[in-house]
Each structure stands twice: as C-alpha cells, then as structure tokens.
C-alpha cells in the first residue's frame, strides 16, 4: 500500500507541480515538543509554568481542544505524523529503537520537497538511525541536525549529535563534562535554516526534545526559589525554555506568509503530571490510550486564513497532517493514507465526523520485537471513545462529551455502539511487520 503511495505521488511530478509553482505557497513550520501534556501550557489552563510566547501565539491562532497525537509514545506518534498512516497501518508501531522507515515509505518531507520546498528537521527524528533507509535525509529532508535515534535523545549533554548522518563531536561534553546543552545547539541550527531559506518556500520540522526524558536543564530558572521538589523545578524550567525557543522561532519567520503548527508528540508522564495537572482531568498519561496519553495541544497560526483567537473542538490526529499540508500547497496527497485534510476547519468551515484509531504495543528486549499479546487499541467516532486493553479483552466505551475523564464505562448500556466500534478497530488493524531488524541498537561509541 505504501509503495503505491510513492509511485502515485511521483507520477504527479511535472505538469501538476509546475501548475502549482506559479502560485504563492506559504512557508510551513511544525513545532513538535516532546512529552508535553495537554495542560502544560498557559493557554491550556496551566497555572504554575510560564509559557508567555506560546500563550501569545495561541491568542493569534486557532487552538484545538480535541487534537490527538499519532500514538501514546514517541516513535509511533512520529511515524503517523510523517506517513499519514494511523497506528494500525504506520510502519513504526512501538518505541523499539530497532526499526527504521523503509525506502518505499513516503513522508511529508518527501511530498513537500518534490513541490519545491526546502526541508529541514532539527531535534529528535526517531525513525531511522545513521546508515538505515529511515535516516531523515533519506526520507525527504535536505538538512537534519540532532538525534536520529530516540534513545540517544534522552541525553541533553551528549558528546555528539548527528549532522545529516555524520557524527558531530561535542568536545565540551566529552568525558562527562557539561559544556553545551544540546537543545540550545539544535535550536540555533533551526534558526540558521530559517535565515538560509528566506527566498524560497520551506518546511521546518522543529522536533525539539524539550521537555522530554532526563530533567536536566542548564539551570532551574525562573523557578529556583519555588518550594517544589527539584525535579519539578527542572521540568518547569525545561517547558519555559522551550517556550522561549518558540518565541525566537516566531520572531525569525515571516509571520504573514507562514503557517505554524505547534503540538506535542504524546501526553505527559511521571509524578509531575499530577503536580502540574499536565494532562488536565484526562485519564492516563504517556503510554496509555486513554485521553491523557494521546490528547495533545495543537495551535495553528496562519494570518489572514485562520481566525485569530478561535477555539475548535474538531477531533483530528497526526495522520491528518499530510493531506492538510497537501491541500495547503495545492497538490493531491498520496493514495492509501488514512488522514483527511482539516483545512476546511482551519478556514472556519465544518467537516464531517471523523473516525480515529490508535494502537499501542510493548517491546520485548529479549526477542528484540513487539509483544503481540500487549496490543492495545482505541478508537473515537464522534463523541464515542472505545478502548481495548488486551487483544481479546472487553471493549470499554465512553461518552467524551459527557465524560471526558473516561470515568464511566457505558459499554453494557450501548451494545450496538460497542459492536460498531469493535468492527472499526478490527478493520483498522493490519499486523505490523517484524521490528527485529537488528540495525538500530543505539550505542554511544
């Protein structure tokens, strides 16, 4: 199916793209923060963490209340985002660290590059290490700087980063020293990309690592004097640092000719979730298919097209990004994808009710592959949400319009609805290919 996507899209080059070349196309910036909860931003009701730049952006944008990540953990979510295929079809199904995208997989970056966009990815890729077909610069990006392997991205004081696929040594961080903070260096390279491409349309994928994994900022300002546990100070400092970097990106772009998306790759995790109310009143957190694991902030800014200060309850997910961007730039999206363009919603029009689907697998380090018995599934159709926590387990059913916290399972009262959701989930799932390719085990040396 994915191979057909690539062939169909490549066949459109030439006349179709030439016709669009004359049209003025906007720059595209997609900012993806890492493990940021739905409620970690001031514009999403956060009370303790300061995010003034993102809050200001939200006041000039459309803010979505019901947007969803592609999955509840990093790699599958990013795979859904890049391929337009939901969790039942996308190539990467778990945080395995051992499976890259294949040559025949087709990404947003490839689509935009073939329309004449300069493409750059800065931060965490997680879909193919150096030497694999999934490396970012083999999947449509002209430039990449940061972490190709997701495990590597846990280390903010790493002794090296990847420039393309080449290893860039950071002597200031050798032998355990902490001389240069990786997120600052990555952000600097993203700004350089913007400066270099002022004269042509560009796609900047700012996949920043903040505030993910090890909570190790250079300092804990502006929270140093708060009477909080140190890890909570660190987390808040990393969110605020990300907010400052977002502000600098926004000041570096041509705001009138750029569409900006800002989201998180999944819900928040750890004890700090409760302290900061990171996932609001939603049940669950990262690695869960309840709302707290997959509902994420989404802000879209496009002056003159997207109404400033608007709030939308439209339910959509990362698989919708590819067709949305295709419609924005004026090309037909690849055949066979699962996403649907939400450009009508961005432009203030209504859209039909969507069916949305997610999967979650655990990874077995002994077999170096997915654990089939760990499959969890979830689906949303309108205000109905179904969750199945085991492959043959009972389907839980929730009414999100009445019970957004998923506290009351109403499956027993709505058997016909359960059968509808169960049928949809069964049809949405295609067994994943083996993840034990063995060529992506991360080692520092």
Task: Describe the structure concisely.
With 445 residues, the protein is α/β, with parallel strands linked by helices.
What are the SSEs and their pairings?
Layout: H1 2-11, H2 15-21, E1 27-33, H3 52-59, E2 62-68, H4 74-83, H5 108-113, E3 118-124, E4 143-147, E5 160-163, E6 166-169, H6 182-196, E7 202-207, H7 230-252, E8 258-264, H8 272-276, H9 291-294, E9 295-301, E10 310-312, E11 316-317, H10 321-329, H11 343-346, E12 355-360, E13 363-364, E14 369-370, E15 376-381, E16 384-388, E17 395-399, H12 415-428
Parallel strand pairs: 1-7, 1-8, 2-10, 2-11, 3-4, 3-7
Antiparallel strand pairs: 2-9, 4-5, 5-6, 8-9, 12-15, 13-14, 15-16, 16-17
What does this protein look like?
- The two termini are 37 Å apart.
- A hairpin with a 4-residue loop joins strand 13 (363-364) and strand 14.
- The protein is built from twelve helices and 17 strands.
- Residues 10-23 have low confidence and may be disordered.
- Strands 1, 2, 3, 4, 5, 6, 7, 8, 9, 10 and 11 form an eleven-stranded mixed β-sheet that branches.
- The protein is 26% helix and 19% strand.
- Helix 6 (182-196) packs parallel to helix 7 (230-252).
- It is an alpha/beta fold and 445 residues long.
- It is globular and about 60 Å long.
